[in-house]
């Protein structure tokens, strides 16, 4: 973070910087981690906006491409939160000028939103991934509506959220697009889609089986018996867990069930999506 960098620089002189939040009564209190990250991101966005201020669109476009390549390097290291910061700064190059919107959305908005969605997906922040994909799908030129990547990533995120019906719908639409003979690399994408659909079928079947176990367990409870069962690897009920396919330590049996992980991440990433709107506000101030 920028504040952390400043504090490192000031160590030699014994100084430090701390971000404070001013209350309505004038009192100052220490900021939260989320507020510090939001302030740091806002500063980065403003700095990036200054770098491209007054430049022709062709220069902004090339600047955005270079920034995205930097983000890709960070992404490949598995530093997804840091990559998101870099991808976000690319958005300051967006143009709403007549004659530039189509290229702006094709070369900046859509690729960046897809990058952000993938980062969120990798971090198991499914709701954020869905929001990024929804923004991509709603781009004014309609380019996002025909992107198989938007549908595929959103489909995976919906499954993480437990929306199996919505996930299947996105996968089937994605398969339809990839099945078009004119699409390059469609066969590879089709194989990946089929793999995800098979995983989904397994999850749905397991969910139905777990529901049956749960109902049997409830009957035993109503009859006064104590229930401590779960679905074992051999398909039989085994002791040692509750009746919802959940181990004692709370770990879900489904590979897609990560609501607890997402809840932990939610606070850390909630400030990123609104910054898409902030970019436009910054650009308006700098004109």
Automatic annotation (TrEMBL):
> GO terms for molecular function, please?
Hsp90 protein binding
Name the InterPro entries on file.
FKBP6/shu (IPR042282), TPR-like_helical_dom_sf (IPR011990)
Which residues, by range, are in coiled-coil regions?
183-210
Report whether Repeat shows up as a keyword of the record. yes
Query: What GO terms in the biological process aspect are recorded for it?
Result: spermatogenesis
Basic and acidic residues bias located where?
246-259
The name under which this protein is listed is Uncharacterized protein
Question: Which organism encodes this protein?
Answer: Triparma columacea
